[in-house]
Design a protein that fits this description.
alpha/beta, Rossmann fold, two-stranded antiparallel sheet
């Protein structure tokens, strides 16, 4: 069977429901999602140590389970939104590609990124406030070392979704971009998924399992998490790249971690983050025509909370 290139990409944002959306879409009889979920093939600016599929042949093997009835073939690598190269390379690869972007209040997104990085062993600083104030240091260390995982710990940069969407719109016509707002996705998951299916020209008359995926987890032992983080750093410095997911699966197991909602941000820290992201949120308002004033309020907690992304 002739290889059919992926024709839609869930490109972000991170910790905004991409894992759940990919799971829901994968159940549709006309959808084929990549295995693994995040090939990360097109984010060349992150380097080969971060990419799971490093060659086109490896990338196409992520879709070897495709069948003739699969009309929509998808790659769900949320790092693409924050990548300088990914969207351009995707368009070069398939000029007809469509893009799905899930957007979340960057204040909540930044805190969720820290929580996830902590659980996965990428983050060694337990306090989000402390990690937030280390961004300049981490930016410098990332540029010096070339470690893509340090780049992912600069939470303000990763969560600045306004500038990232602006970059997408500079390269892709708007009719090929589907925006999914996290708050609505959390409150009306089925309705949001049906809108995505319509965007992909697929039938919405299907029954799907809406179990939430990738729930927030807290490690039971900080000692274990710290040891895991140290081992991960040694492995990466040696030039090896995770792709099997065994380490993450272990840390997310019931033995090592438990499902738990994050602690709310202090009013002072929330106010600091609101000021940091205000300009970026205003960019997003201009691009989408959506009033996001509630995102800029330091007193506002996220109205819709999707357990899979807290």
């Amino acid at each position: 069977m002739k290889f059919q290139k992926p024709n839609f990409f869930i490109i972000g944002a991170q910790k905004s429901g991409t894992t759940s959306l990919a799971y829901y879409l994968s159940q549709h009889p006309n959808v084929c999602m990549s295995v693994p979920k995040e090939p990360r093939y097109f984010c060349s600016d992150y380097g080969d140590r971060f990419r799971i599929a490093k060659t086109e042949r490896q990338y196409e093997r992520c879709f070897q389970h495709r069948r003739p009835e699969h009309l929509a073939i998808g790659d769900a690598s949320p790092v693409y939104l924050n990548s300088r190269d990914a969207v351009r390379k995707i368009i070069d690869y398939n000029p007809e590609a469509r893009f799905i972007i899930l957007l979340r209040n960057p204040i909540e997104m930044a805190a969720a990124l820290h929580s996830e990085s902590l659980a996965c062993g990428d983050e060694s600083v337990a306090s989000f406030k402390t990690a937030w104030h280390m961004q300049d240091l981490r930016t410098a260390e990332s540029e010096q070392s070339g470690d893509p995982y340090l780049k992912g710990l600069v939470y303000g940069e990763v969560a600045a979704v306004g500038r990232q969407v602006q970059r997408v719109y500079q390269q892709v016509s708007r009719d090929r971009v589907c925006i999914v707002w996290f708050d609505r996705f959390a409150e009306d998951t089925e309705g949001s998924v049906k809108e995505v299916l319509q965007f992909l020209d697929l039938s919405t008359d299907v029954e799907l399992d809406y179990t939430i995926k990738n729930e927030n987890r807290q490690v039971k032992s900080r000692m274990v998490a710290s040891a895991f983080s140290a081992v991960s750093q040694v492995v990466r410095k040696a030039g090896f790249m995770g792709g099997t997911g065994l380490g993450t699966a272990l840390l997310h197991s019931r033995l090592m971690s438990r499902k738990q909602k994050r602690e709310p941000l202090s009013p002072q820290l929330r106010s600091e983050l609101a000021a940091y992201f205000t300009t970026d949120i205003e960019i997003l308002e201009q691009l989408t025509g959506k009033d996001l004033s509630h995102w800029k309020s330091p007193a506002t907690e996220c109205a819709g909370v999707m357990p899979g992304t807290t």
